[in-house]
Write the structure tokens for this entry.
Amino acid sequence: MISLRKFIAALVLTSCLLFTSCSQQAPSRFDGAQQDSTSKGATAVVSKSQSGSAFNRYFPDSADGYQRVYSQEKKGFAEAKLNQDGKEIAILSISDTVNNPSATDKYQSSSSKINGYPAVSQGSSGTAVLVNDRYQVKIRSKDSSFGESDREAWIKRFDLRGLSKLN
Amino acid sequence: MSASIFELVDNLPKNNVTTMMLKSLDSIVPGEWENTVGFVDTIRKVTGETDEDLIQQIGDRAVWLYNDKSQGYQRAMWLYQTVDRADKALGSAALANKVGNKIPLVGGLLSKVTPNPDKAQAIDLSIKLVVELVAFCQINGIPGDSIGDFVGSLKDYSGESLMRMAALVCVDGLIPLGPDFLLKAQSTLGGMSPSDLESNSTFKGVSDSIPGGNSRGKLNFIGESFDSVKGWMGDFVRSKNLSPEKVMNNLQGFLEFSDNKLDYVAAFIDVSTNYYEHTGTQTLARRLIERAFDEI
């Protein structure tokens, strides 16, 4: 006769197998973020963040055959597409780094500036400045015709000085 | 716990009845839709970036944003999932019966589907449209009842979003309701009572997310939304020179059916595909990734 201990051991092993085989997805490089962001009290956007609509007026206007089309507006974030002849060539955005403070780290090691504000390039497509140690203004190219010098020129078209006074 | 955004995108099928159906519609919106699946591949595709550390940062931020319920992404995903009620078993059975690149719509497959009455089909069409409107607002952060903003942005639709709208017009409009599907749907909505709406299963699934308060208010909202978007749909049909026959020709690229079974084509597609959920997941992932890259 099977002893009770063996029976329980077998039961535990079988249920472990059943449990893991049903619930386990392949491990992902994003598991850490998933775990942290679903822990109690975790939020991606904090209450003291600036509203997204507060940013709209600092965006550059449509000009010289370029059209600015607003595309997203969430708390702490506003985004617009820059189109030329109906084709998307770049993405313009302003975000409040209180929601993602590590975004400011990259400016610590950068010595470059645009209009006096700390500037960085990011990946192969992005250029950004940090205004008032808080607001990140970023332009990302969506077309190879719009290069780094275009991004720098268009960052200067934002009302950076106005944005620096936003509290 | 609901699935993570990376699981949802990783689990999008590369090839099933839904993707075959969407590919068959490619000539209507040429080159707009590519079936990009997998979270990391989607990040690469959307951003054009290859640096692994950067991809990690973008993905991590996207995961955080998706999991913050206040940001609306989960609600949008739920809407896209709920409005499609695909029968996965039927889809698999259809794939298993594939001959060459086509699914023959015969025998057992036919006996499992029943054509929708016009009224139910008209409600389905208009509710899918409202789901697009509400999901669009949730994803892009526009107040949920901004019909005007949504209509304005339709002209800017591209990629998988435009493909979703093309499929809506074709397989939920023209095929089941005929060339005058807009008029039919509008007259159905006009003659409908709140209790008619309440008894519709598609409505029941997503009712809580439709603005308008009670059923009468929701019915009004559905009517107003349909009214505002019908111009865009009519222009789409005219500019692409679409007709039920033309769409049928496209669908014959993946489906084999005889002319006396046309009624069943719409019913089969309705039950065996989840094109709203599939392309909706792709749209949501794209918007999330764009925002994540802006914020890191």
Observations:
- The beta strands of chain A are 66-74, 77-84, 87-96, 113-114, 117-122, 126-131, 135-141.
- The radius of gyration of chain A is 24 Å.
- Residues 87 and 130 of chain A are 28 Å apart (CA to CA).
